[in-house]
Amino acid sequence: MNLPSMPLADAWNPGSWQQRPALQMPHYPDAQALQQALGTLGQLPPLVTSWEVLSLKQQLAQAQEGQRFVLQGGDCAENFADCQSQVISNRLKILLQMSLVLVHGLRTPVVRIGRMAGQYAKPRSADMETRDGVSLPSYRGDVVNGPDFTAAARVPDPQRMLQAHAHSAMTMNFVRALIDGGFADLNHPEYWDLAWARQSPMAARYQQQVDAIRESIRFMQTLSGAPIHNLNRADFYTSHEALLLPYEQALTRKVPRHDGWFNLSTHFPWIGMRTAALDGAHVEYLRGVVNPIGIKVGPSVQPDQLLRLIDVLNPHDEPGRLTFIHRMGADVIGDKLPPLLRALKADGRRVLWLCDAMHGNTESTGNGYKTRRFANIRREVEQSFALHAAEGTRLGGVHLELTGEDVTECTGGARELTERDLERAYRSTVDPRLNYEQALELAMAIVDYRHS
Ligand code: PEP
Ligand code: MN
């Protein structure tokens, strides 16, 4: 029998993205070494499980309905050297502390998603970087090449994909162990303390919230006459930009008892603004995986583009499947966001909206640092809430770049960091992150705004 051949658009498989224009891909000089590394990667165990992926999708579906608030945060780019116990536990702590502030202040359960355990690939605006007349390939994240400005470091090395998998697994293993061991136990919020933060201008307010929460837990336990279960467990999910498609493909797997292909390198793969073209390789890849997926939406995106992305990425209007992460910038969000919200509301299909208050607010200082002002980040979050409310849509959460370390990369905040402070502890190899205090302050600002 002669079966009609399927149109290309329907013939998805984990490698079908290779038929489309793939932006932001490194050029590996040794094709054989690349195939060898991918072969090994394809045999290694995955980093997350299908049932975790499905439970996150369910939680995101609840966030779409306003029953949960999403906190997605972490480094712009992780690097292998920072795969250390203190850095990981501090990052987990700040996310848990922020979520505690949000749960308490918004009276809503929070979905916690760390941009971690795999956030190793970065899109770049130029393929080459030139310094003092020397041109080398741009740094594309530790999964691709090294940040040092030397020819050797900048050659894309496929072995780095295996290292990225190993570092993600070590990070994941430690996070899971901390959470299983009671690190997130709500009966012991004092475990969530970060030593140096006691000197913070935000410390008193945070302590009051911790005390209030502890008091309400005691009250509930008294009422029920027994310890409340589930308080000692915090669900925690991971996300990263699904940029390096050969890596993602090698970790795209079938599992027993569930239909479809899962990306098991992370719970929540998202694609950035530069690779969100409808006919591009990244959209083709994400189209076929079962995971919940996110797409960054910048100020140049038109309503029609979003509707066509929904056609391709969520044709059956599945709850929890599709998240749009808008990243407009505090100065333009008032103009750019409402037409998108209106069009999607009129269309009626389900999406979850998150606000990335970082990437539209990046600027360079006179002394050459890439920075962001706390006031602009805060303003973009506040405007997002207001604009959604005005259009009858819902802001379901925030997407932030932050660290649990005491860095000085963004200016402003309660400690009023200035451009001069940036010289003191600027550590990011890519984008500037909120430090511990600024991140906690932003969580409190969100709560204040909701109560104003
Ligand atoms: C990022 O989230 O680090 C990023 C590069 O975002 P965007 O694609 O929105 O610029
Ligand atoms: Mn970034």
Provide key terms for this protein.
single chain, alpha/beta, 8-stranded parallel beta barrel, two-stranded antiparallel ribbon, binds phosphoenolpyruvate, transferase, Aldolase_TIM, DAHP_synth_2, cobalt
Structural description of this entry:
There is one protein chain. The protein is 38% helix and 14% strand. With 452 residues, the chain is α/β, with parallel strands linked by helices. Strand 10, helix 10 (333-347) and strand 11 (352-356) form a beta-alpha-beta unit. The longest helix is centred in the first third of the chain and has 22 residues, at 85-106. The radius of gyration is 22 Å and the shape is globular. Mean pLDDT is 92; it is low at 1-7. Bound molecules: phosphoenolpyruvate and manganese (II) ion. Residues 76, 359, 401, 430-431 line the site of manganese (II) ion. Manganese (II) ion is lined by residues 76, 359, 401, 430-431. GO terms for molecular function: 3-deoxy-7-phosphoheptulonate synthase activity. Its EC number is 2.5.1.54. Its cofactor is Mn(2+); Co(2+); Cd(2+). It catalyses: D-erythrose 4-phosphate + phosphoenolpyruvate + H2O = 7-phospho-2-dehydro-3-deoxy-D-arabino-heptonate + phosphate.
